[in-house]
Recover the amino acids of this structure.
């Protein structure tokens, strides 16, 4: 059962104004993306695509149809070009079932006053070293992102909170070993998802992971780098978010992170068939060719403006 809450009527009006959404704009944008799919030999047929996903791309690109086309095309083609990132579609079976023993991944139910969706990534205490497969963590994050797209409502953007106080020194080496997967996933998040990243909060980061943080920041553009906030303790987050949004163990009014993360695990199981179909969106045999390749290192789609 979906449990993401949408904006209030007043918030919805403000968000639409911010996005530049006028009467009929959303419907025209969806029709345009469906027309692009119908005319393409390598994109899915229009009737296959869930309307909610198309609406997310139109709104996530602030009604810029050319940009929405580019991002949606990249979203589909990524399923073929980066198949290794999308080949496992369950959090209850190997190899992704161990990821949640290492990290809680929890998009929060309520929006902030600004209409932002907050997602928490918390490294768990006393995690087993065997659960720290960073490539598997990347796949799990993309999987939950896809599940969230099925349920997401009208929002003004995203905020990520990384709670890293339990990280051990050994994680830096594992991060370095999985650098290619991490780099590709970060580039895809910017180039192939309808995401408006507004802020990234990192809490409790020990000095031993400075190199890992620097690596992650090197994968994004200057505008996103300026949106990083570092905090020593989770209580500092109450200066940035209303308590009604944050989980109980951080001084908030929402359910605990563990409870919300388990709900997302169940939600992924409920959407298993949908998520498997989503991983087959592009016809590999008719795959388009790009001048530069975003799916390996840095490419053309990284030049897209980030709101």
């Amino acid at each position: 059962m979906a449990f993401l809450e949408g904006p209030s009527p007043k918030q919805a009006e403000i968000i639409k104004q911010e996005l530049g959404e006028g009467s009929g704009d959303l419907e025209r944008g969806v029709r345009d993306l469906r027309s692009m799919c119908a005319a393409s030999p390598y994109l899915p047929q229009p009737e296959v695509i869930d309307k909610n996903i198309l609406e997310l791309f139109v709104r996530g690109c602030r009604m810029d149809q050319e940009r929405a086309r580019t991002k949606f095309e990249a979203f589909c083609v990524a399923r073929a070009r980066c198949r290794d990132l999308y080949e496992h579609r369950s959090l209850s079976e190997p190899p992704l079932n161990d990821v949640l023993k290492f990290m809680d991944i929890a998009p929060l139910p309520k929006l902030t006053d600004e209409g932002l969706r907050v997602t928490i990534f918390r490294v768990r205490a006393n995690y087993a070293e065997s659960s720290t497969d960073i490539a598997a963590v990347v796949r799990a994050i993309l999987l939950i992102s896809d599940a969230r797209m099925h349920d997401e409502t009208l929002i003004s953007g995203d905020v990520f909170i990384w709670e890293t106080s339990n990280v051990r020194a050994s994680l830096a080496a594992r991060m370095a070993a999985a650098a290619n997967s991490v780099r590709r996933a970060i580039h895809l998040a910017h180039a192939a998802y309808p995401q408006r990243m507004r802020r990234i909060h990192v809490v409790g980061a020990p000095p031993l992971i400075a190199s890992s943080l620097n690596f992650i920041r090197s994968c994004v553009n200057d505008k996103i780098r300026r949106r990083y906030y570092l905090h020593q303790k989770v209580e500092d987050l109450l200066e940035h978010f209303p308590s009604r949004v944050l989980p109980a163990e951080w001084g908030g009014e929402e359910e605990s992170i563990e409870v919300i993360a388990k709900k997302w695990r169940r939600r992924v199981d409920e959407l298993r068939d949908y998520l498997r179909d989503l991983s087959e969106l592009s016809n590999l045999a008719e795959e388009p060719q790009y001048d530069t390749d975003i799916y390996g290192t840095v490419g053309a789609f990284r030049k897209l403006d980030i709101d």
